Amino acid sequence: MDELNIAVAQFQPKDGDKAYNLAVIENLTRKAKSRGADVISFHEMSITGYTFTKDLSYDEIVNLAESVPAGESIQALIRISKENDIAILAGLVEKENKAVFNTYVCVSLGEVVAKFRKLHPFINRHMSAGNKYEVFNLKGWKCGILICYDNNVIENVRATAILGAELIFAPHVTGCTPSAMPGRGYVDDKFWKNRETDPVSLRLEFEGPKGRGWLMRWLPARAYDNGVYYAFTNPIGYDGEHLKNGNSMILDPYGEVLTEIKSFEDEITIAKVTKNKIPLAGGFRYMNARRPDLYRDIIGKEHTSNFKPTWINEK
Fold first, then answer.
1. Residue 234, C-beta contacts closer than 8 angstroms, at least 6 positions apart
2. Average pLDDT over residues 142-151
């Protein structure tokens, strides 16, 4: 199909409470289907919770993890997908043998049609990194997945696009955390507590450089430079001890925001994406103008990856 109705969601998860989080996922999926969505995407580790896992021991995170596709949570997603006739993308902690991964899956037509392991995990020292890109067919569209920080490494986005992705799902748990960039940092809890009596103050915090303002420095560029649609998801409210700004949105290959959630509540928004925009986008032309002979050895040069966010506690 040349057109696809995509829903992106945001909600406030409960740490380690998979039953609660899956119940929210089910309710928002039903809502999306009732509004005509063909697919719905949720945020990073939306089934398990994310930030609280930074302090878990190996045994604790293994106990939280499940196998894919045999685990109960994936089977629940498959059931929800079948009952509502809609594709669902959501994340959890996966275990395979002795390794654990930050994993994101797509379920459709009664099965797992895609599984992606985060390439740059850092939330827990026991997590292993994924080692491959994922491009898959979904309702006639070539889709890719990149989880949170994976999208900040621009080579990951370009590689996914080169592999044929027309639409990239970008599940996140991000924003409102410290950074070397001026204006970044936590949002004071008082703003969240007063969100009903003083919503403007909270919205100003979320829309500024701590939240949306930072996203808009780079997120439209990923879509524009690569000529792809982007489905960005992010929790709203608290994930662990970190307050998150939501702003789940869908961007087109021109880097324009098609739709975005501004609510402080668990919510969805839907946009229709059309393939006819892709060949008209600048990024599509730039991809065809590449000269890899100039930079193959430069981009592929050996390099040691060394990164840790400032808010991760040393252990």
1. 10, 43, 172, 173, 174, 175, 244, 245, 246, 247, 248
2. 98
